[in-house]
């Protein structure tokens, strides 16, 4: 164990930071409309099954790699098997984080802008038909998305530059409980709307007649992508864990928090959209176009608009923190840089490279390659190609490279038990690689 390496202060601090990485726009923004498209309750059950059978085993393995390797996402693999090129798995993860941060910071900037609009009372205009126009004007502006992306990146840089314990852990200890409290308040408000029972029935009552192969694939992909698996986040965060960290318990807690927020988001959104007669499969503009219109018609709508967009911003911020930290850990350790220097250099690079993404809906909207804008290409390459490919490499590394028995030995250090190891070994060797091949083929449009 590298005793000079930064470490988490508490187990809860690690869990909240790692959960903050997993809990992002994928839970609050993407999950509800994907569930809506998939028929509601049946999709939720399938998603839960995949989160446990695919997400949890991979997360246990990633954290174990980080704690064993005691280095950044690439060098941890190198430390475990120096004679083989498995470090490519970690390097791909670092590239994924950088690419995702480039376009994710753009959308996170949108959430910050909408929170400020709601806070200053300029969001709810009284003209419901104008919310689509308002959103379109904002993202097509040649300057506004860039400004808010820059502000978001400065906030993230200032937190990460403070280090693991004083920056990432301390702020997640504040941000994550705040997020849960605000989500609870919004849930209570949504569930007290007249007719909310219809939305709850749609969301929670399984209707397996609506389940198709595409719904199953969507649930599988949502479980994999929403947990930020195979991106090096859990390897990096695992490298800051102490020798007595209960890896299965912590991984289970992270998956629980991630799934809980996705479920809570559904409890907020579905009763509201059914109450106001809105299509639950509306799509991504549900957040920025539909919900302002909902708050317009709601008692104390201005207050709940502030709470809602602050929740969205917090979820985006905690994920952006982990995205930057993975790349910063690699840069500072490979080039022996001070954390402050590495953080500002990496953050500035992500902002500059991400500028075409910020302008993809405005000045660069007509600039496409194979009918994809810069934003679309970053999203497609990072999320649809590299993430499932890195996940496949990770499963092969855990199942056949490092070997399951060696993973078990790392997990069980200092008397920690690894329950259901036999099942974990079967899943990681056979089931998960097959599932990740399916995700990869589906993501690139082969199936």
Automatic annotation (TrEMBL):
<dbReference type="InterPro" id="IPR037272">
    <property type="entry name" value="SNS_sf"/>
</dbReference>
<protein>
    <submittedName>
        <fullName>Sodium-dependent transporter</fullName>
    </submittedName>
</protein>
<feature type="transmembrane region" description="Helical">
    <location>
        <begin position="171"/>
        <end position="191"/>
    </location>
</feature>
<keyword id="KW-1133">Transmembrane helix</keyword>
<feature type="transmembrane region" description="Helical">
    <location>
        <begin position="343"/>
        <end position="365"/>
    </location>
</feature>
<feature type="transmembrane region" description="Helical">
    <location>
        <begin position="86"/>
        <end position="116"/>
    </location>
</feature>
<feature type="transmembrane region" description="Helical">
    <location>
        <begin position="211"/>
        <end position="235"/>
    </location>
</feature>
<dbReference type="GO" id="GO:0016020">
    <property type="term" value="C:membrane"/>
</dbReference>
<keyword id="KW-0812">Transmembrane</keyword>
<dbReference type="InterPro" id="IPR047218">
    <property type="entry name" value="YocR/YhdH-like"/>
</dbReference>
<feature type="transmembrane region" description="Helical">
    <location>
        <begin position="41"/>
        <end position="65"/>
    </location>
</feature>
<feature type="transmembrane region" description="Helical">
    <location>
        <begin position="298"/>
        <end position="331"/>
    </location>
</feature>
<feature type="transmembrane region" description="Helical">
    <location>
        <begin position="146"/>
        <end position="164"/>
    </location>
</feature>
<keyword id="KW-0813">Transport</keyword>
<feature type="transmembrane region" description="Helical">
    <location>
        <begin position="255"/>
        <end position="278"/>
    </location>
</feature>
<feature type="transmembrane region" description="Helical">
    <location>
        <begin position="377"/>
        <end position="402"/>
    </location>
</feature>
<feature type="transmembrane region" description="Helical">
    <location>
        <begin position="12"/>
        <end position="29"/>
    </location>
</feature>
<keyword id="KW-0472">Membrane</keyword>
<dbReference type="InterPro" id="IPR000175">
    <property type="entry name" value="Na/ntran_symport"/>
</dbReference>
<feature type="transmembrane region" description="Helical">
    <location>
        <begin position="423"/>
        <end position="444"/>
    </location>
</feature>
<dbReference type="Pfam" id="PF00209">
    <property type="entry name" value="SNF"/>
</dbReference>
């Amino acid at each position: 164990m590298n005793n000079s390496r930064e470490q988490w202060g508490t187990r809860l601090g690690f869990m909240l930071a790692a959960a903050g990485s997993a809990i992002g726009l994928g839970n609050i923004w993407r999950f509800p409309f994907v569930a809506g498209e998939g028929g509601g309750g049946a999709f939720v059950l399938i998603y839960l099954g995949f989160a446990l059978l695919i997400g949890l085993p991979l997360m246990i393995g990633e954290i174990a790699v980080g704690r064993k390797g005691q280095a950044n996402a690439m060098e941890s693999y190198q430390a475990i098997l120096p004679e083989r090129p498995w470090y490519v798995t970690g390097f791909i993860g670092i590239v994924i984080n950088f690419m995702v941060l480039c376009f994710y910071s753009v959308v996170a900037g949108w959430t910050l802008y909408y929170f400020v609009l709601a806070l200053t009372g300029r969001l709810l205009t009284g003209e419901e038909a104008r919310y689509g126009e308002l959103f379109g004007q904002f993202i097509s502006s040649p300057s506004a998305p860039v400004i808010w992306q820059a502000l978001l990146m400065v906030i993230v840089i200032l937190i990460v530059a403070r280090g693991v314990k004083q920056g990432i852990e301390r702020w997640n200890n504040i941000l994550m409980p705040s997020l849960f409290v605000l989500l609870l308040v919004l849930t209570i408000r949504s569930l007290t709307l007249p007719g909310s029972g219809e939305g709850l029935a749609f969301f929670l009552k399984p209707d397996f007649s609506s389940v198709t192969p595409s719904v199953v694939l969507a649930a599988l992909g949502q479980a994999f992508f929403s947990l930020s698996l195979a991106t090096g986040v859990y390897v990096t965060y695992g490298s800051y864990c102490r020798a007595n960290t209960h890896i299965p318990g912590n991984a289970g807690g992270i998956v629980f928090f991630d799934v809980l927020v996705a479920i809570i988001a559904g409890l907020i959104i579905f009763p509201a959209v059914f109450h106001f007669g809105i299509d639950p499969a509306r799509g991504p503009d549900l957040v920025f176009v539909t919900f302002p219109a909902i708050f317009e018609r709601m008692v104390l709508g201005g207050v709940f608009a502030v709470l809602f967009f602050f929740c969205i911003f917090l979820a985006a911020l905690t994920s952006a923190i982990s995205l930057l930290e993975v790349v910063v850990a690699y840069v500072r350790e490979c080039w022996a840089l001070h954390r402050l220097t590495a953080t500002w250099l990496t953050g500035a690079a992500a902002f500059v490279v991400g500028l075409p993404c910020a302008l993809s809906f405005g000045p660069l909207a007509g600039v496409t390659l194979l009918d994809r804008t810069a934003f679309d290409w970053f999203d497609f390459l990072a999320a649809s190609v590299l993430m499932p490919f890195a996940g496949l490499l990770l499963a092969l590394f855990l199942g056949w490279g490092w070997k399951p028995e060696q993973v078990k030995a790392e997990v069980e250090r200092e008397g920690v038990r690894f329950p259901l190891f036999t099942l974990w070994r079967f899943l990681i060797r056979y089931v998960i690689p097959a599932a990740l091949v399916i995700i990869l083929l589906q993501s690139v449009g082969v199936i």
